[in-house]
Predict the 3D structure of the following.
Amino acid sequence: MTALKAEQLADVTSPVLKGEDYRRTARAWLEASLPLSYRADHPDYRAPSLDQLKSWEAALYRAGLVGMVWPKAYGGYGRNLNDHLIVAQEIGRLAMPESVNSIGKELAGPIIQAVATEEQKLRYLPAILEMREIWCQGFSEPEAGSDLASLRTRATRIADGWRISGQKIWTSGAAKSQRCLLLARTGPVEERHRGMALFAVKMDTPGISVRTIRSIDDKESFCEVFFDEVEVPDADALGAPDEGWNAAIRVLGIERATNRMYRAWRFENEMRHLVNACRSDPALAALLDDGHYRKRLAACAVDVEVLKGHVETAVQALVAGEQIGSRGSLMKLHWSEAHQRFAALGLELLSQAPANANATIRQAQQRFNGIYMHARAETIYAGTTEVQLGIIADRILKLPKGK
Ligand SMILES: Cc1cc2nc3c(=O)[nH]c(=O)nc-3n(C[C@H](O)[C@H](O)[C@H](O)COP(=O)(O)OP(=O)(O)OC[C@H]3O[C@@H](n4cnc5c(N)ncnc54)[C@H](O)[C@@H]3O)c2cc1C
């Protein structure tokens, strides 16, 4: 807590709060509660530890700002998607740390609600919201990324469960996760989409080993996960044994459309940070007057507004009971490409600061180094740019198959 104590703030969980009142209350809570040292645009910023992030996210949940649309029976707040959008907008406008359990909250949670048994929902969902269980996503394999249907990790039937052997790769956060949303093959590889099942595997099960991979940004979030005759009880199999592919496609649809809805507003926060930082240094302030940079920044501002429109339109469609389907590819393509262009522009501007730049510039440089590195991955994960273009050509434009 910074300026105010929690008990002095209006209760965001109150069901009587609607629309702009809800927004104001959520904003007040966030402004008062997010430590300055967690804000990547504040001079006191220090990257929080895993334990600090878990406590922060548990506090967000208790305040009613996580699990808004999940049913009350499973620990959620039973609100509608419009309220979720309001909170996403408020979270986006602050330079808040990324969730360490976004796979649990935004991918596993929704798919569990769609396909799991009542007993499973009660067992998994509150643990995600309360940050007792962090989830990772075990889909990609060394020979199965874009072409996920060729995955080889095998689940074989045994008494009361399954025995799983194989390897996953690029599994973000596996080393700190308690559960893995695992897609494995139950039928022959030749059957491709058929014969796959989804599991909620406990990461401390004997036979699982995790090896971290150091990435370009010097982090070790990515992992290889090896499964050596891992026994998973039926109680942790999600949905029907041969319906894994359909469930996985739903996961990917969520990942492309409504996952991290706050992105457009965070992008705007980053733009504000960049421009304000440049204004603090005479050499960079002069670049803001340069027609070349003015045009590129203006184009980014247009991108931000288009992205906001994409998210708001998607939310309205979902509230009206429609599916997002392949339109999710339009959104994924646009945000990832636009954000990558912006990240490169940010780095280009900030790298022209003098060697003895002020603390504001040095901090912006540190933030934009991270944004730039991460943006490299944004056109790869959740389906590469080329894959999204293929989906748009096939399913939206219905063009003939290219050679
Ligand atoms: C930051 C990050 C986090 C990730 N986290 C996870 C995670 O938590 N869990 C998980 O399971 N996976 C994760 N992934 C993996 C990600 O899903 C894959 O990297 C992605 O699906 C691409 O697969 P691939 O790396 O095998 O590349 P490939 O599929 O081998 O693609 C290589 C190149 O070929 C192109 N290509 C492939 N197929 C086509 C096609 N049909 N048409 C045109 N071009 C094509 C691609 O666009 C790409 O340029 C993560 C990846 C990144 C970068």
The chain is about 45% helix and 10% strand. The pocket of flavin-adenine dinucleotide is lined by residues 136-140, 145-146, 170-172, 377, 380-381, 383-384, 386-387, 390 (CB under 6 Å).
